């Protein structure tokens, strides 16, 4: 008897889940709407990229003849899926892609050249902050538009500085002095988690102050090496920071999240990250004393020291198949992109406290959003930025680059070992185009 | 069984499993080996480079480091899991109130998403804020405080211990199923002869569970080679690949730095290792079982 | 004297079981406790009891996850995959372990063939399975997931079935054959009831595996309304960070049914198995 009941329950379970699943199944779609698929790289777009979600909603409402379908996966899975899709010619109409991979895709013809429709529209081009549209220009064609601005730097908690009687540092010597005082007072100078090797954003700007862009083209052409005087100075500087107790003792087991929370809870005075943490810090108890800084200048640096990082981030691309086979869909994609990067899109982005790649002249309520206001002020200051962020410039080699920095911080590599490792890996991984 | 074993019967019974298995498991293995001879970033057209990936592998320090870590973990878990989960199974075999719930509680670590297993054990094992070191400090045993994770040597041992925690209930369940399969006749006969609990266990239970032990060991060996999320969450394979195991190094190579071909070479070597270990063990145990019978 | 000894032994026994269970359970209980804390508290003060027993994480988890859809998808996939994998592997395992092969090497080779499948981690299979699915034109359907999942457990199921069948005395089956049983009846009426412990084990392991499987699901499914429970983890991943609070709350919500399922199954199928069968 019991067995029969179990069997009955199980078949009911199957039937009901079939029904439930059909009820929740997607719409067949009206025949009249043009549907385009837009694929993002966070699984929960509404929470983690609200500006994108809001723009899609607004666009769909304003354009009843087009329906933008938002698909999303977490970052790693998204990259995997896009690569797989490119092999089987099934890319979504518009999608986010890591720029190194996007450039490779462009070379194989998987991406649509949108230069006519975008660059041809002078007014639209004017909207953009300088240099934004150059990042995805390959061989006179335009293959993508940056999804957002890469603004990296060091967050600082003024309250903790005041507590220890310190000024916000300007030079590297200032920074080291602050580290000393903080350590005496039991405060961690800079939160960091090297388990997530990518979380060393501000150090790339520091590398720019040691001539990153003076050598990198030579390195990639095979005429220069990572093991050069300027770069060695950079890695020595990193070692100096570690030796001065700048970072938490257990940073090898800490990841980005732990470090971020350390800062948000007031246990650390500084934190290396970027604009994406604005919303997090607005909600912390230190929102009024959190500020943003481009990092220390170096007395033994190379070239201009007042460098900021306001470079284009990874792009949204349009699939070549869409352009070739469905002119209707392609036109819809272009309309969507013009909305996203136009006035309405920019306003929505600002309202969601994200940072647009287009110009924004409006006001921001600094009482309600102190951190965001400070961020926008930093973006509009006069410190120049390189055209490209170093990690974007070296494409898929970025992880190895991050590892070299983390290695010196962790004490696993000496500065010489770090640059030698990079030289070795450059050949192996094909960074050097022989 | 001779009368039932017509060729047609055999083929019909084997066909569905073999087909499905070949399609989704064996063919991917061949594809994996195929790509190990190419240079491929996941986009565009693969470039044939013959044995270069394997030649590189033999000179790759990181690969040997990850192999070493994998072996350490393997040996540790073999030594730890068998006695512990068998012991647990013996204990759970006794009838007592709430037995079902206790069994379920012991099984529960296995169902928790690996990402959370990593998070919780990070809070226990971290050298600075972890429970373990803090507890040792409170008990005055500072000498025993070590860098359980994030250091240069101890991580594989910690990973093995975390894996033990995860699968203790799982293997106990397997042993329990085996123990339940032993007819109570044997135990009754032994009791009549005056055997106590230990004698019964050593002379009846263990010998009759030979096959179960074989299964458990094969699963432990193949499972040990596949430990992935635990390492990722505790140390990310770091610092700088010092605590990588074969799978995490393969994942890094294939998906993080997009060297798909080399990653598949690592995967092929790792799969061969795993298979050889398991197969050798199976053949040895088969001979000894046959010998006894 | 004897009574005292017995009582003494029983206490030690309970203490031992209790201790082991507590040690095993402790981290899980800790996770539950963490689910009531805010993200900041989790990272910075993991040991102290939560300041406020907040249900925020649970609210977020329920908002973020469309639990009904996810459960529906997962149950559908799990049940079909379970049926396929258990029936296929039972048939082939029975064949390998019981039926007569003139050349013993064939059955051993087939056995090793299946066991080889255990050595491959799922991440390796992602690309090939994706291509196979694409060429069979099955993308984004639940069946594109059911078939690979069933295939990947065939190795484990075969290992378990063959191992146990080899251990089992053949008398009952031989008696049934002499009574004129055909193979189908033999399997379903005679063998299946006897192997209940191992059948239950296989079913539980398979369901847990389908419930928690991540790599293959993450690659074959990209529409939010087809997400399974295991993909719920990825819903909490931000661009760089992780909403651990929400994730922990979601995990508690998800693992409780799994544990209840395990409780239920092993209670009804494992205990009291062969009492009548062999003697009678």
Total count of helical runs of at least 4 residues of chain A: 21
Oligomer classification: heterotrimer
Which range best describes the helical content of chain A: under 10%, 10-25%, 25-40%, 40-55%, 55-70% or over 70%? Answer: 40-55%
User: What gross morphology of chain C would you assign?
Assistant: flat
Q: Tell me the CATH architecture of the largest domain in chain A.
A: 3-Layer(aba) Sandwich
Mean pLDDT over all positions of chain C: 81
Return the structural class of chain C: mainly alpha
User: Could you give me the name of the CATH homologous superfamily of the largest domain in chain C?
Assistant: MetI-like
Question: Which class of the largest domain in chain C in CATH terms?
Answer: Mainly Alpha
CATH topology of the largest domain in chain A: D-Maltodextrin-Binding Protein, domain 2
SSE order of chain C: HHHHHHHHHHHHH
| Biggest sheet details of chain C | none
How would the blueprint of this fold be written?
The complex is a heterotrimer of chains A (434), B (293) and C (280).
Chain A: H1 2-24, E1 34-40, H2 45-48, H3 50-62, E2 66-72, H4 75-87, E3 94-96, H5 99-107, H6 115-119, H7 122-126, E4 137-138, E5 141-142, E6 145-146, E7 149-157, H8 158-163, H9 172-184, E8 188-191, H10 201-208, H11 212-221, H12 229-243, H13 256-264, E9 268-274, H14 278-282, E10 290-293, E11 310-312, E12 315-318, H15 320-325, H16 327-340, H17 343-351, H18 370-379, H19 390-393, H20 398-410, H21 415-429
Parallel strand pairs in A: 1-2, 1-3, 8-9
Antiparallel strand pairs in A: 3-12, 4-5, 6-12, 7-9, 7-10, 7-11
Helix pairs in contact in A: 3-17, 12-20, 12-21, 20-21
Chain B: H1 7-35, E1 38-39, E2 47-48, H2 52-58, H3 61-93, H4 99-107, H5 114-125, H6 131-138, H7 155-180, H8 184-192, H9 197-208, H10 210-224, H11 229-235, H12 246-256, H13 260-292
Antiparallel strand pairs in B: 1-2
Helix pairs in contact in B: 1-13, 3-7, 3-10, 4-7, 5-11, 7-11, 10-13, 12-13
Chain C: H1 2-34, H2 39-44, H3 56-64, H4 67-98, H5 104-116, H6 122-135, H7 142-167, H8 171-178, H9 183-194, H10 196-212, H11 215-220, H12 232-235, H13 244-269
